[in-house]
Amino acid sequence: MNFDGIHTPVITPYREDGSIDRDAFVAAIEHLIASGVHGIINGGSTGEYYAQTMDERIELATLAKEVIGDRVPLMVGTVAIRLEDSILMAETAAKIGASAILVGSPPYSVPTERENALNALAIDRAADLPIMLYNYPGRMGINMGEEFLDRVGRSANFQAIKESSGDINRVHLLARDYPHIQMACGMDDQALEFFAWGGRSWVCGGSNFLPAEHIALYKACAVEGDFAKGRQIMSALMPLMRVLEQGGKFIQCIKYGVEMQGLYAGPPRAPLKALNKDDKRQLEQVVRVLKRTIAEIEAE
Fold this sequence. Notes:
Layout: E1 5-9, H1 22-35, E2 39-42, H2 54-68, E3 74-77, H3 83-96, E4 100-104, H4 113-127, E5 131-135, H5 137-140, H6 146-152, E6 158-163, H7 168-177, E7 182-185, H8 191-196, E8 201-203, H9 211-223, H10 227-245, H11 250-260, H12 277-299
Parallel strand pairs: 1-2, 1-8, 2-3, 3-4, 4-5, 5-6, 6-7, 7-8
Helix pairs in contact: 1-2, 2-3, 3-4, 4-6, 9-10, 10-12, 11-12
């Protein structure tokens, strides 16, 4: 699979009673496809997979594929505490015809590198699909280190890695020592650095509501190689990155951003709570300036 481009981890809209609003979910996907994103991820952190039952996760993955068809690639998230649940999601992805799966470390258990690699290889065998790894030690408690990468590299399905550690040295390691594993930016405020080191993929929650602006940075850096323009766009995006990456309100901001675009997103599921008025005003101001600034850069 070609993992180039902007891959959006789509939100899951909930009604006030916590139930899934399937019509709004479909509308969110249609909006992303119409906006030109290069792929869609269902069951990522931004989609609140951790707050869903396995039946809900399977239903949403199936619905996503029905809506998307073959218009853009669909990647299905498999992260779960139990290996059996990850395998179930991998099997579901294969059954519905997904293009790839997203494989992370199991949260909380803190396995060794060897144990984590065997876990990932078991998920691989269940789907036999292209895989994007998901390295997020801040949530999972461990890094996908060199021993892990060497072990999973025995399967050709491990083709990309979403690097969300925030450690720039990991970017250097991946670019230098693992060029056969495509590097995808998973830490939004480092997108420019990822592109500078040869990354051609960005998994970005903010593209749920600002797809054009995220695509603009990808095109400037990865397609056109115009890093002067890329620095301008990244500079305009940085206030948004600071809002999203700080304060523990990432999903809440993404969902309110979607609603700012005229789509329904609803509240997050417990224990998270929707943004307060001050947080909403801050995000509105940041987005207003960002959109105007990037539009001016694109018009030059």
